[in-house]
Structures are given as structure tokens and as C-alpha cells.
Amino acid sequence: MSENWLFDILQAAAVFFLNPLFWLILLVAVALGYMRVKRERKDFNIRKLPGLTELRRLVADSWVHALLLSVLLSGIGFVADAGWIVLFSIVMIIVLISFYYQWGSPIYTAAIAFFGLAAWQKFGGSFSVHGWSLQDVDLLDQLAVTIPVIAGLLLIAEGMLIRKSTVKYASPHLEKTSRGLRAAVFKVKKIWLLPVLLLVPGDMISAYVPYWPQFTLGAESFSFVPVPVLIGFSQIARKRFPDELFPKFGVLVIWTGVAVTVLAFGALYEPMIGWGALVMGVLLRSVLTLVTAVQERSGGYAASPSAKGVVIAGVLPGSPAEKLGLQPGEVIRAVNGMQVANDKELYDAIQVNAAHCRLQVADRNGEVRLMQQVLYRHDHYQLGLLLVR
């Protein structure tokens, strides 16, 4: 008996870990890290973060959000549909392999799956598999509330992740300006994995895995289905610095998610309000993406070459530069009393004193401050800076 129980638990775990979407997300996270490192080394001859950072932070940044979503949705009793989950996963796979993560918000994938299910029901004819029937799906009943609420909550989670977990991952790279110079832009191309448990009516899993969590309410049975939810984000900060742009952008996404969630509850009285909540969420999230992209493309560059010194494009984690509190966009005017105009002069000046490094730095507002950092014997040749050059 115990052996059968263990085997059933392993089968249950396989529902999530053998999901092709799960493995694709892992592979793409590795690919994103590889492409980022390749780009950074091409521009700066060094990478800012290790190549496996995207993979290591795939769930580390988002597991709390996934847990809260699972508890909240299950506790309230929102029931999803097996067909919608399948379409939702297919849409996420398409987004994942396209690498266009500016359209990787869950409001898009959830809405496409919902309206795709509606179109399939209207034009696709009869269809059933393993006890699930297309004709049994009622998109003007509970699903008109459930799917928009799920989409709204996922949108809130997306906003929180953007606000808290994008600034440190912003990757600098050099771009030619209209004047033929090279300025720094900051690119975030990030995916997160949220392992979310959703309630599904019927015996979608328990029919094959007897010990999978299941309960009955009246004459109907329900199962918990683990779904790997993808959240993709891609944005370039050109006119503003990452710490100025992304936290504000994340807050706007959060408020969009709140609006979608609140409006979705109106479907309890009129189902079409839930449909409208999804459409509104798609439109608002699209406007945020497009308006931000247009704003960042207009005007000048936040980190462009300066005649007054060397402009910082990035700071390596754990480096002397980070200990000094240097930030992208600041200008190093002098090192150890020597004026510097390029990276060679900077590092030549650092080697003047192998024990201490004294800097004259102008911040983003042009205010000058002096700072000093003790350097170790073997790393006095570098501060850990990525420079605009």
C-alpha cells in the first residue's frame, strides 16, 4: 500500500515537472542569460551578472507571489476550466519561443486563451476528451468571473515583480547615437515562473492519480491542478535610468491589475462585465507598453558621453565601485588628482596609488562629491565599472 502511495505522489509531481512549458521556461532562461552575457562582453569585455542569473532567479523572485495566488484563488473557491488551462499553456509556449516578452504579460495570455475558447466553442463544433466537453464550458457563468480575476491578480503580481526585481537585472549596452557617438541604454528582458495551483472541476488528475488532492462539494468533485505560469517582461530604458523608470512602470501595472480585478467582480451581476474587464486590461497594458516605448525613444540618452569625464554605464555587484556607491549615469572627473577623459586614462590614474583610490565624481544632477576606497593589491587595476566609451 505504501509503495503505491509513493508512486502516486511521484505521478502527481510529474504533472508539473513533466509539463513541456516548465522545461521550455528553464531552457529559455538559460538562453536569455547567454545572450545577455554575450552582448555585455561585446560592448564592455566583461559581463555584469553571471550567465545563469536568469535561471537562478526564475522562481526565487516569484515563489511568494505564486504561493499567495494559489492560497487566495483556492480559498475564495474560484474554479478554472481544463480547456482554458490547456489553451493558456499553449499561448504561453508561443510567447515563450517568440522571445517578444514585451507582450508576455499574463493579461494577454489569459485573455487570448479565454476568447480563443469562446471562438472555438462558437465555430469549432463539438469536441470532448477525457470527460471534458467543449459544449459544457459556460463562458457566461462562473468563468466570466474566474478568468478575469485570475488575470487581474497575475497582473498585480507582474507589477510587483517589475517594481522590485528589474532594476538590478537591467543590462547596459552601447548604442550609436544620431551624432555617431555611443551612449548607454539599459535593457531588461526577463521571465518569471509562477507555479500556481488552480481548482478544476471533475477528475482531471485524480482519475489517473488517486492520491492527488481532491474534494467534493455537493455532487461535484474538484482537483488541484499545478500550472506553470509564465510572466515575460521586456523594456529598454534610454531616456531615463532603470531605477527611475521601472519602479514607476511597475506601480502602473499594479493599478491596472487592481482595476481589472475589481471590474471582474462585476461579472457576478452581469457576465459581460468580466469580458469587458479582460478587454480593458489588454488595452491598458498595451498602452503602458507603447507609451513608455515612445517616450524612451524620444529625446536624448540618459547616459551619453561627456566632455567632463568618464560616464558610468554599469557597476559590477560586489566590486569596489559598488562599495563606493557609484551609479550608472554618474561622471568620474578625476582619479587620484588626475583628470580623466576615457577608460585608459581612468585605469592609468588608478594605478598611481595601489592602496587607495580617490575619486572626484559628479552625480546625475551635476553635483560633485569626493570619495575614497581602499583597493586590494591584485585588483587595483579596476573598480568594477562598465563605461560609456
TrEMBL record:
Which keywords belong to this entry? Membrane, Transmembrane, Transmembrane helix
Domain PDZ: start-end pairs? 290-365
Domain of life where this protein originates: Bacteria
* Listed InterPro entries: PDZ (IPR001478), PDZ_6 (IPR041489), PDZ_sf (IPR036034)
NAD: present as a keyword of the record?
Answer: no
Membrane-traversing stretches:
12-37, 58-76, 82-100, 107-123, 143-162, 191-211, 217-237, 249-269, 275-294
Q: What is this protein called?
A: PDZ domain-containing protein
